[in-house]
What does this fold into?
Amino acid sequence: MANTVIMEHPLIKHKIGVARRLETGSKDFRNLISEVAMLMCYEATRGLELQDVEIETPICKTTVQELKGKKLAVVPILRAGLGMVDGMLNMIPAAKVGHIGLFRDEETHEPVEYYCKMPSDISEREVFVVDPMLATGGSASAAITMLKKRGAQKIKFMCIIAAPEGLERLRQDHPDVDIYIGSLDEKLNENKYIIPGLGDAGDRIFGTK
Ligand code: PRP
Ligand code: URA
It folds into this structure.
């Protein structure tokens, strides 16, 4: 079974708390989601391998440690996942970006696929799937299945808020995927929204409601 990591950093907790507030508008909400993604990226990349490299400073020759040149990809689940991409790329600018389009049917709450475009060498990349919300887990699970069908082998999933139901589902469907969670909330309501959650992440990022 892969790891599940729940963030403990005070900056992450504070920023998620402000994002949850009803009165936080789209501009601030978008910035907060991006900042939390950046901080979570720092935690989720702890395991990246380093290599020794000989360099010359203005003073003398020395050996420094640099990333081993591992290929990375960030894959947002549209739409709301787009809000996490800039924060991730601030930390790992060389990563390629793939996109998966899924929306949750309002009646059945099942994910409906509408788009998928991946870097051609996705099977060689370590992939970070990002979506602010893990509710029933249907969207994240379907996105990871789509990625695996296209050859991705090393996948991590990052979300800002998770419900226990979604976490359970994702761990069952994809036990090989490390999961990084900003906050593990209480439960889902009868409309499959996360309690206390932060509402509809896509609508709040893009100001569509
Ligand atoms: C939201 C969210 C996730 C999904 C989570 O997207 O961004 O993708 O719901 O719910 P689940 O775990 O029950 O599948 P939504 O379908 O609202 O689409 P949007 O991002 O385009 O607004
Ligand atoms: N999608 C959201 O954006 N919010 C929820 O609480 C659940 C699904």
User: Anything to note?
Assistant: The longest helix spans residues 26-44. The longest strand covers residues 154-162. The chain has a mean pLDDT of 96.
